[in-house]
Amino acid sequence: xxxxxxxxxxxxxxxxxxxxxxxxxxxxxxxxxxxxxxxxxxxxxxxxxxxxxxxxxxxxxxxxxxxxxxxxxxxxxxxxxxxxxxxxxxxxxxxxxxxxxxxxxxxxxxxxxxxxxxxxxxxxxxxxxxxxxxxxxxxxxxxxxxxxxxxxxxxxxxxxxxxxxxxxxxxxxxxxxxxxxxxxxxxxxxxxxxxxxxxxxxxxxxxxxxxxxxxxxxxxxxxxxxxxxxxxxxxxxxxxxxxxxxxxxxxxxxxxxxxxxxxxxxxxxxxxxxxxxxxxxxxxxxxxxxxxxxxxxxxxxxxxxxxxxxxxxxxxxxx
Length: 319
Hints:
Layout: H1 2-24, H2 32-38, H3 40-57, H4 61-77, H5 83-100, H6 104-124, E1 132-142, H7 150-153, E2 168-181, E3 192-204, E4 208-210, E5 221-223, E6 226-238, E7 245-260, E8 269-284, E9 287-298, E10 308-318
Helix pairs in contact: 2-6, 3-4, 3-6, 4-5, 4-6, 5-6
């Protein structure tokens, strides 16, 4: 008994120190899974449920009931909202009921089930939160070039009719994913919803043309760089949570575009939506590599066609 009290005191102190350190360092509020895992009652419930199952296997039904009741007491005292805790409570109630009826096998089975579910709560506190930072890059292409505009090539009417007709190019970007729910709020186990915040730079194929310097009679050919900057916010559905291979889709996200050069009307801001899909593979611990493909449909408020698609690779680090 003295040993058990000592172990309990050590757990409580460890939890208190961890929470104090987190707040002292300005850490974000812990998730419900982390709080459940840090709850000493959950650890006690796992221990007693496991002991109940062990006694039941030995045919000691009275000890199975006694330990199951202790586990049930701690599981209820945990006071956390978690489906594994709920299932653990149900199994422990069944274990007590069957044990009191003299059914050692049923008491053992339900006590073991409770132990398994409650142990999952502890595991959730040590696994990834699902939050990640990522860096991506690859090839992109506009649906239409920007040839014939004044600022891009002076309408292509000077310098031998040269125009900025390129549509392809590269993109680089990065951002963060913030986990919202790992099971769509209990409706679809294994399907997570994350919120993605991204920033992306595109450099389209550019040509040497007569530039706006023609206004001051300078017809020297110069490369007019065609670029675009996009900030985005998008929901992302990730499948096969808990595995090393996770496909994902973006049903619809919001884009904010800045084009350069500006349009002939000197407009440069646009908005649109994006749709995407891809998959990622865990390389090591929380290091992931993935494939990424997206289509960006712009509203063309700059009087230019700004829609484009991208395909590339990315790396992500969980935190």
